[in-house]
Amino acid sequence: MVRAAAATMFFGETAETLAAGGDALTDRIAQTLREWAGHSRERGVAAIFEAAQLLGMSNRVLGWQGGARHMTDLAHLTQLLGEVAHREHHNLPALRDWLRRQRDERSGAPERNRRLDSDAAAVQIMTVFVSKGLQYPIVYLPFAFHRNTTDSDVVLFHDEDGTRCLHVGGKDSPDFKTVERLGRKEDASDDSRLTYVALTRAQAQVVAWWSPAYHEPNGGLSRLLRGRRPGEPVVPDRCEPAKISDADALARLREWEAAGGPVIEESVPAPAPPLSGVPVPARLENRHFHRGIDTGWRRTSYSGLIRQAQPSGVGSEPEAAGLDDEVGDILLAPATSVGDVASPMADLPAGATFGTLVHAVLQTADPFAPDLAAELTARIREHSVWWPVAATPEDMAAAMVPMHDTPLGPLAGGLTLRRIGLSDRLCELDFELPLAGGDRRSAPPEVRLADLSPLLRAHLPADDVLACYADRLTDRSLGAEPLRGYLTGSIDAVLRIPDGAGHRYLVVDYKTNRLGDAQHPLTAADYDRPRMVEAMLHSDYPLQALLYSAVLHRFLRWRLAGYEPDRHLGGILYLFVRGMCGPDTPVRDGHPSGVFDWRPPSSLITALSDLLDAQGVAV
Prior knowledge:
The chain is of the alpha/beta class. It has 20 helices and 12 strands. The chain has 3 domains: 2-103, no CATH class; 136-258, 3-Layer(aba) Sandwich (Rossmann fold); 313-430 and 489-604, Lambda Exonuclease, Chain A (Alpha-Beta Complex), CATH 3.90.320.
């Protein structure tokens, strides 16, 4: 396998060099391949291409016959693999399988079309100034006939001694007319030189256009051909008369043609096609729009579903650049103390920008970093360029370290975020979930949010902390929302947790809401379980949790071999990060402050998935 790789364009070895190099050459190439595999894991497929370039691949391959074609194809393939790796979270073996499928399939996708290996034969568009010193077989000059001139209070010119001057006296100064005339004359001379450059770039043919535009009298080509007659050496600064009929202009140009100048071709607009013989009605009537407008089909999100039902200032993520579920405090009943532990984030700012910054850091920071505080500080510096907040990166990182050491409760087996590496996290799982068949043209049964209520009543036990949300779904302001089209969004993270011989998967959503009274210091007691339940119901988070669980169910059903909802759906964690205070976080009935965990029956999730697909679910 190593010797086969050595014979590719990446190394350029031949049968002779492989035989002469022996095991030493094979070992060296094997070591290079191992290094490239590490580059791929750390920086992506493009890092392999870059490393091969540093070893001289480009210089070697471009020396082959058709080498430019090979390098173009390889660069194109590197880009495609990088995009797939980023979009699908593929490792090298998965990328290999993807590439095999693409090679075998007869797809007409645009990205599979080969790119040009050279643009030497392509049309090149450039300014006249840039074209100086270059030549082309054919040159087209569509705008040489006119030049835009503007009146300005400031004039740039050269005096009698050749000194470059800038006149700033304005139009009311006594010498302005003289200076303006000098400036216009210099501009006209510069334009004449550029026109000469443009006309002399062609090796075989120049094609130029002329038309009676408003600024045509100032154009270099116009002043050359219309502003003077054959035999006159002086090129005027402006054509006179400024306005000229098409016939007179054509006659002037014909003089140059007769003197051996350019070949004149008159551009005549093509005649309009004749109108079809449709009889004109004797009497006109207004048309009436008698069809109904389908307002039920839409591309929406969880935020869009609850927007009409929520009071001002309450919402959730729009799955876009910023967050709108963190715009203000959630006012709840006074906390019942379960421990007097101060929130590490008590003094940090609130609001959507802060919430977005926290999300971005949690998506990219490596919890296995030897120095977690330094890792968080680096990620905060990186993302605060886009999401600046009134806190130093060091202070914010110090406040985020304790949340990584807070137990995540029984659903996560007592693990902490620090003990769950990036290989066991799927961050920002973007989705487009078809509702009632998505684009399907048939008319499925009308499904609305209120149809979720019977599912909750049928599948949730009466003592479930969120069982009462079934009543909320029957509220007309929320329950009347149609579910047809597509549900789009992004799950903050999916965690893979060890479970016996296998794993289970948890939906995770980060929340930076302040649940405490602004008049008192924020503590873990503000995030004990009863208050988090109240916050969940207040902001319609149970709906978000259910929808995201249905998304995870669809994803695992598609991607996980031997998927069993009862075993693999691990539940939902809402991490109210301001209440996660580290190892000393108070625990009530097994539930740490700041960690809201909920595991609805898998039968509810599968029934919800079927309902969203408009299959009709009997409960």
